[in-house]
Amino acid sequence: MLNDQGRPTAPVRNGDDSDTRGTFTGNRALAQEEALIFEIGRVGTTGVDIEEPTAFAPRLGGLARQDGIGLPGLSEPEAVRHYVRLSQQNYGIDTGLFPLGSCTMKHNPRLNEALARLPGFADIHPLQPLSTVQGALALFDELSRWLRELTGAEAIALPPKAGAHGEFCGMAAIKAAIAARGEAATRTVVLVPDSAHGTNPATAALLGFSVRPVPARADGTVDAAAVAAALGPDVAAIMLTNPNTCGLFERDVRAIAHAVHEAGAFFYCDGANFNAIMGKVRPMDLGVDAMHLNLHKTFSTPHGGGGPGAGPVALSGRLAAFAPLPYLKQDGETFTLVEDEASAREAGAAPLGRLTAFHGQAGVFVRALAFMLSHGADGLRQASEDAVLNANYIRASLGNLMSVAFDRPTMHEVLFDDAWLKGTGVTTLDFAKALIDEGYHPMTVYFPLVVHGAMLVEPTESESKASLDLFIATLRDLAHSALAGETERFTGAPHYAPRSRLDETRAARQPVLRWAPPP
Amino acid sequence: MTDIRYTKDHEYIRIDDGAVATVGISDHAQSALGDVVFVELPEIGRVLKAGEEAAVVESVKAASEIFAPASGKVVAINTALEENPAIVNEDPFGNGWFFKIELADAGELAQLLDEAAYTDYIRDLA
């Protein structure tokens, strides 16, 4: 159960002294250093003119705060500069190619943003009377229709706010369905292939299931026979990602689904990699019962520093009745929301409960539907085809230099291992860090765990051939350098970033999670 | 020669005296894991079956389960690892031990790899 972790990290100063002697301000030309807001803000300063409250009788009793809370205050230009400077230190898909495997870092078309800013979407509140937000609800319904069409699902649960939340929703629906059959006490195991995203076993565990791993075959895919052997009357579901985290299509998926259903269990598919098959395969046709869709991956909405994402869940006919509250209902021309369990049960549903206060990430829904409508059915299909083509172009262009983990055409991402680095003194981590010096965000490293020293590259369909060619040329130059024994380019990398190699070990062992004023 | 045995998952088990044995991870394991940042140990008194998940070791990049190499009852845990998990990297066979178990059946150890077999095994992995 061990994987290679690369070089133990240690803090490395950037370059020699002449490089770090620095300037009077600490800035380097127009690259600005920026202090924490607590260090530059002043208590009592504010950017807005608020009237002093007149005397009032607090009703908090003994709970009233005695002292100020010490929030830093900034003038408006100071606040703007602070956040703009921080944003300039960030690297995003708007900065450059972002090959982070398994994350589908595709371009968010500006048309999405224009539509999401329309006041009818941007300036509404979830507690407004429903009669005043019919347009937004109609958009939710249209989004749901597109997602049903793409997946073959019976119902779409819109509330989940991210992929892992979607997994939780789908697995909770499966748990509810099993409980409804009276098998809650006996079906307590979830099968998870060992190439799965870490969120899969975590989701199963959070819902009270125990996890039974299914080993991968030598070719990186899941063996239907191994699944069949792991199945039994105690199994509630399998959680499978297709294409899987090695970027390979699970060819036995129908046989696996058949075996899972024969054994009375459900098939959860992790939709993280839907960008490879959008418009090509309807997952429900493969026997899937539930699958989340990462709108922030496949449908181009921003990942936004961990949020806001959205992870609606496609549910098959066997699970549709268990969809969470609230859900949309259409009466003639009017949309309403079914908000409470009693009304849902009256209508014959058996909702698993409520996952969010409101109905999901409305702004993300607008962007995702804008992406779908602007591409059309044929455009979505082509987006997937181009994503797969781009990944295979990278594989074909680097496969004679770096070692591909599985020597066969890949889906939307391509997986390399570190066999080609053997004996060079350069690890996967060093190689990834050197890519930062070249101005690229690194690929995903050391995942999936089933491959030694993994490097997982996902270019998405957003990149032009010129962009891919430059990226490939960069990787080839780095690879030649590593193979030629130029280890200093790698072991201390990044050399040119504002901060060099960070001490990840110390950060994990002695985390400082709360800022305190210097003594 | 010390009586030390290994699993293919890179745990070691070493008989201390009679029925009590010490469990940890091999030098190869700590090296492959990289800097260990967290160790979760079993509770004293817990009865483990061979192959059962007994502890968790987390390094900078990943968390791995530690499986009981043999059946028995946990009689001691190395609480020093909770404060300073780096000992696992520094001294895996000494101060970096994980827990001690009272063996249910010392005969189980015969099924594990001895020093020579384990050395061959990790050479083949490399």
TrEMBL record, chain A:
Residues 1-24 are annotated as: Disordered. Residues 187-304 form the Aminotransferase class V domain. Keywords: Oxidoreductase, Pyridoxal phosphate. Its EC number is 1.4.4.2. The keyword Aminoacyl-tRNA synthetase does not apply. PANTHER family: GLYCINE DEHYDROGENASE (DECARBOXYLATING), MITOCHONDRIAL (PTHR11773:SF1), GLYCINE DEHYDROGENASE, DECARBOXYLATING (PTHR11773). This is glycine dehydrogenase (aminomethyl-transferring). The glycine cleavage system catalyzes the degradation of glycine. The P protein binds the alpha-amino group of glycine through its pyridoxal phosphate cofactor; CO(2) is released and the remaining methylamine moiety is then transferred to the lipoamide cofactor of the H protein. GO terms for molecular function: glycine dehydrogenase (decarboxylating) activity. InterPro entries: Aminotrans_V_dom, GDC-P_C, GDC_P, PyrdxlP-dep_Trfase, PyrdxlP-dep_Trfase_major, PyrdxlP-dep_Trfase_small. Residues 383-479 form the Glycine dehydrogenase C-terminal domain. The keyword Oxidoreductase applies. It is an enzyme of class 1 (oxidoreductase). It comes from Pseudochelatococcus lubricantis.
From TrEMBL, chain B:
The keyword Transport does not apply. Residues 20-102 form the Lipoyl-binding domain. Keywords: Lipoyl. Pfam families: GCV_H. The modification N6-lipoyllysine is found at K61. Its cofactor is (R)-lipoate. Binds 1 lipoyl cofactor covalently. InterPro entries: 2-oxoA_DH_lipoyl-BS, Biotin_lipoyl, GCV_H, GCV_H/Fam206, GCV_H_sub, Single_hybrid_motif. The glycine cleavage system is composed of four proteins: P, T, L and H. Belongs to the GcvH family. The glycine cleavage system catalyzes the degradation of glycine. The H protein shuttles the methylamine group of glycine from the P protein to the T protein. HAMAP family: GcvH. This is Glycine cleavage system H protein. It comes from Pseudochelatococcus lubricantis.
